[in-house]
Specification:
- With about 425 residues, the protein is an alpha+beta fold.
- The protein has 2 domains: about 260 residues, Orthogonal Bundle (Endonuclease III, domain 1), CATH 1.10.340; about 130 residues, Nucleoside Triphosphate Pyrophosphohydrolase.
- Helices cover about 40% and strands about 10% of the residues.
- Strands 1, 2, 3, 4, 5, 6 and 7 form a 7-stranded mixed β-sheet that branches.
- Helix 1 packs across helix 12, helix 3 crosses helix 4 and helix 10 crosses helix 12.
- The chain is globular, with a radius of gyration of 26 Å.
- The termini are far apart.
- The structure holds iron/sulfur cluster.
- Iron/sulfur cluster (SF4) binds next to helix 10 and helix 13.
Length: about 425
């Protein structure tokens, strides 16, 4: 491992030209090269001993072709955004079996991508991944960009984190990563209690990640830091006793011994004015221990929405029931996925009005007279999307005859229950 990047060493404040923001106090940085070296060694030794065997790690370690390796890491990183490792494994294996290369993915249809993604949530991720794969094939001759900077610049949907992960894990570029797990670990290691979602804190954490990353094993180091956050330095009850970097952890020191230890810049730290300390209005709470860190500004409440949805049912030609599904528009929430005919409802609409509105919607759509009273209320189903608290008011309507649908309206088809589950439908619709 090489030396720490020089920007982890705070400069004396007096030397700064007017208008330059002051660097954070040394207490919040890693300023001792020997400590950085020790932390890297301890973390990597732990990772080698305890890491989870995961299919994308195996591919990253064994695939000799750099483009295929980068593609394998990229797919895993996109799937892992907002989704648990345990859920991703199956999806990942199926995806890599079906589309082992960028070229294979570029040739897939969006429908196939949506079908495989169904149930994983945040559906635009699959679509964006495929669009970017097409771009690599058509505009970059199938060659993945070779640095984090180029990955971020050239690939749609690849942000700073994903670019850093692909470049460090696939190419060995010594560049750090900051995701939710890394934020938690670094904030605890250095008692950073200012709002961890604020750009000022996030910038500092990137600086710190770049300074800490091991120069000879950057991919392993980054994965180790994330793994530590996922398995040891977890949000609610971290396992500090088993932590390989506990001797470097100021939150733990503070928990055990009170106020943080030798603070060279004590005047600026903990008494207001420090950009990385908790706000003076939210002092250290000893009942929380190390989970005082990180801190986030209060989350915005999710938007509340109601949607009437109707399960239209008919007897199929073999006597088995069939259900009508329609395709959502190609942009916006759940773009391109299939659902039962649905209608967003105004807030506070009475039951009777809801039913009438849905009947009108179905009538306009099927061209059949639909009587509101024939719609049978089943129950309400709640589904929480990341930012929407959605209630589906579910009705059913059995049909005797056949219905000819206006093909000029959104695409639609009749499916059996089995076909429904194999279609590109959201988890919310499966609940319905
Ligand atoms: Fe996290 Fe505890 Fe380790 Fe500190 S000692 S990094 S709080 S697990």
């Amino acid at each position: 491992s090489g030396p720490a990047a020089p920007f982890s060493l705070p400069r004396p404040r007096a030397a700064l030209p007017a208008g330059t923001p002051a660097p954070p106090p040394a207490a919040h940085l890693f300023s001792d090269p020997a400590e950085i070296e020790a932390l890297r060694g301890n973390l990597l030794a732990w990772y080698d001993r305890c890491k989870r065997e995961l299919p994308w790690r195996t591919l990253a370690a064994t695939e000799p072709d750099a483009d295929r390796r980068a593609y394998a890491v990229w797919v895993s990183e996109i799937m892992l955004q907002q989704t648990q490792v345990a859920t991703v494994i199956d999806y990942y294996n199926r995806w890599m079996q079906k589309w082992p290369t960028l070229q294979a993915l570029a040739q897939a249809s969006l429908e196939e991508v949506n079908e495989l993604w169904a149930g994983l949530g945040y559906y635009s991720r699959g679509k964006r991944l495929q669009e970017a794969a097409r771009k690599v094939v058509s505009e970059l001759a199938g060659r993945m960009p070779r640095t984090a900077e180029d990955l971020q610049k050239l690939l749609p949907g690849v942000g700073r984190y994903t670019a850093g992960a692909i470049a460090s894990i696939s190419y060995g570029q010594a560049t750090g990563v900051v995701d939710g797990n890394v934020i938690r670990v670094l904030c605890r290691l250095r008692c950073i209690g200012a709002d961890s979602s604020s750009p000022a804190v996030i910038d500092r954490l990137w600086d710190m990640a770049n300074a800490l990353v091991d120069r000879s094993r950057p991919g392993d180091f980054n994965q180790a830091l994330m793994e530590l956050g996922a398995t040891v330095c977890v949000p609610k009850a971290p396992l500090c006793g088993e932590c390989p970097v506990k001797q470097h952890c100021q939150a733990r020191r503070r928990k055990l011994f009170g106020k943080s230890t030798p603070v060279p810049d004590v005047e600026d730290c903990g008494v207001g004015g420090c950009p990385l300390c908790p706000p003076a209005t939210e002092p250290w709470d000893s009942s929380l221990g190390v989970t005082n860190f990180p801190r986030k500004a209060a989350k915005k409440q999710p938007r509340v929405a109601r949607t009437a949805t109707c399960v239209l049912e008919r007897r199929g030609c073999h006597g088995a029931p069939e259900y009508l599904i329609v395709q959502r528009p190609s942009s916006g929430l759940l773009a391109g996925l299939w659902e039962f005919p649905s209608l967003p409802l105004a807030q506070g609409l009475q039951e009777e009005k809801q039913r009438e509105a849905l009947a009108d919607h179905l009538q306009a759509w099927t061209g059949w007279p639909v009587v509101a009273g024939d719609l049978r209320f089943i129950r309400e189903v709640i589904h929480i999307f990341s930012h929407i608290h959605q209630t589906y008011v579910v009705y059913s309507l059995p049909l005797d005859g056949d219905v000819t649908l206006d093909t000029a309206l959104s695409p639609s088809r009749w499916v059996t229950a089995e076909e429904f589950h194999a279609s590109a439908v959201s988890t919310a619709m499966k609940k319905v």
